[in-house]
Amino acid sequence: MAPLGAIFLILAQAAPAPAQLSCQTGPARASVWDRARAPHLARYCDLLAQAEVRLSREPARADEAAAAAAALLPEQAAPLVLRGRAVLLLGKPAEARQHFDRALVLDPGALRHPLALLAQATALRDAGETRLALEAYRRLLPVIDAIPSHEARTRAQLDAALALAQLGPDGLDPARALLQDAGRRGDPALRAAARAALALVLDRGNAPALAAAAAAEAHQAGALAALAASPPPFGWPVEALAVQARLREVSSPAAALALWDSYLARTSQGPWAAHARARAAELRKTPGKKP
To answer: Which among 3, 85, 146, 264 is least surrounded, fewest beta carbons within 10 Å?
Structure first.
């Protein structure tokens, strides 16, 4: 009679493609079935761990480790997710998107973790896939509070809010809620940026008095410097122009007008083009007066 381990090996090799494996409990505690299906599991898990550890500080080395893990077990989605996150940090959003798309083919739930969802949304945004990016940010909303880093969570709230605002009037209420939350805690510069964005959202929502108050508060809190920081608080450059324009109305109508004109040059047919034209027209009527 064949040894039990050999029987498991024969059955495993004859079975359909394996489900996605987990390294969370450690390869030493993996089931006999998993070890039979994936004899390289220990090395695979070690490479994934290396990629995770190196991701934020050494994304190139993280990508190398994740690529090696993918070579060992090419049917697994986890290395592709890590590769996507790594190359995104290296400034390659289109390549990141390809890794995420391949991971989803292998496992439709591959991007269930908030950081993976955020990376996918960011990659789509930076690759110019605006419609898909907006959908990705909407998927992120239910789990955005689970992003572990407070700064990363606040930046995600700011980007998600501006993404929602681009959907038109239906996106204003959830955008407002995100910005109000982001403006209450954390880094002072990001709080100021959140207040500046809130001023724009309130203005678009036909609440001019509240918008003026939010803009004045943001200006006093140093939002102009916050919006000029590197990296910028917002990942949507066109929407950032509108945020800056509404903020500049507090202190420099001429600068605000130039920013509204720049915004309209970039998005003359967007859902908020009429609002931008109205703000610019008001500034042209009274160029020396604060609206």
So the answer is: 3
